[in-house]
TrEMBL record:
GO cellular component assignments: cytoplasm
MF (Gene Ontology): glucosamine-6-phosphate deaminase activity; identical protein binding
Keyword Hydrolase appears in the UniProt entry: yes
Protein name: Glucosamine-6-phosphate deaminase
Domain named Glucosamine/galactosamine-6-phosphate isomerase: residues: 3-204
The entry's keywords: Carbohydrate metabolism, Hydrolase
PROSITE patterns the record matches: GLC_GALNAC_ISOMERASE (PS01161)
Keyword Nucleotidyltransferase assigned: no
Protein's GO biological process: carbohydrate metabolic process; glucosamine catabolic process; N-acetylglucosamine catabolic process; N-acetylneuraminate catabolic process
UniProt xrefs under Pfam families: Glucosamine_iso (PF01182)
Length: 219
């Protein structure tokens, strides 16, 4: 689907997720023999306090796993600046850049085990836009595996809001493993509620969910 989008629109605007879930997608995209030099991209989120050169920053993850791997043009890929002096200003500027690009064609999404999308922790308003948020303890614990210790995981982040994500023309949610099964079932079959942000996908007109059997086991 992603390759087909780019074949039809070489300057497509992708919403890029980090985390482990989308990595096989990025690998597979690399095997498609596409010219991705005009693809534009916006990351979902960034840790607050980690600069774009910090090895655990999402800017670096996107740089390594997406931009360098796939030959994207670095100048066309945007990640919120986790070291911005004014987080609210950075968030508003990020929204402006998405708007100026004409919106996101396809937003790649993982799902947090607590039902978060990007870093929209429960509860998050469906009307929320890009902003600074505090991370849930469970999210910091989940993501500690990428850091040396739990203490090293930042406490705050800048994240696209749920309304920002919802405006993407196509949502592509990817989840693997038993650890995600409960969250996937609640997102797809549970009540639509801001208490469980991923349930918002039920309201979107164009959503694709890709699961392995383990992640689908509670549907
Ligand atoms: C992280 C990211 C999310 C991601 C999620 C799942 O905290 N902020 O955007 O989707 O958690 O991560 P993983 O795919 O590694 O399970």
């Amino acid at each position: 689907m992603v390759a087909a989008l780019i074949r039809g629109k070489p300057d497509a605007v992708l919403g890029l997720a980090t985390g482990s879930s989308p990595m096989p997608l990025y690998e597979a995209l690399g095997a498609e023999n596409l010219d991705l030099g005009r693809v534009r991209g916006f990351s979902l989120d960034e840790y607050l306090g980690l600069g774009s050169t910090h090895k655990h920053s999402y800017a670096q993850v996107i740089r390594r796993e997406v931009v360098d791997r796939l030959g994207l043009a670095p100048a066309l890929i945007h990640t919120p600046d986790g070291e911005a002096a004014d987080g609210a200003l950075e968030a508003a500027g990020f929204e402006d850049r998405i708007r100026a690009a004409g919106g996101i064609d396809l937003q790649v999404l993982g799902i947090g085990s607590n039902g978060h999308l990007a870093f929209n922790e429960p509860p998050s308003a469906f009307t929320s836009r890009t902003r600074v948020v505090e991370l849930a303890d469970s999210t910091r614990a989940d993501n500690a595996r990428f850091f040396d210790s739990l203490e090293d995981v930042p406490t705050h982040a800048i994240t696209q809001g749920l309304a920002t994500i919802f405006e993407a023309r196509h949502l592509l949610l990817i989840a693997h493993g038993h650890r995600k099964a409960e969250a996937v079932a609640r997102a797809i079959e549970g009540p639509v509620t801001e208490q469980f942000p991923a349930s918002m996908i039920q309201l979107h007109p164009n959503v694709t969910v890709i699961l392995d059997e383990a992640a689908a086991s509670k549907l």
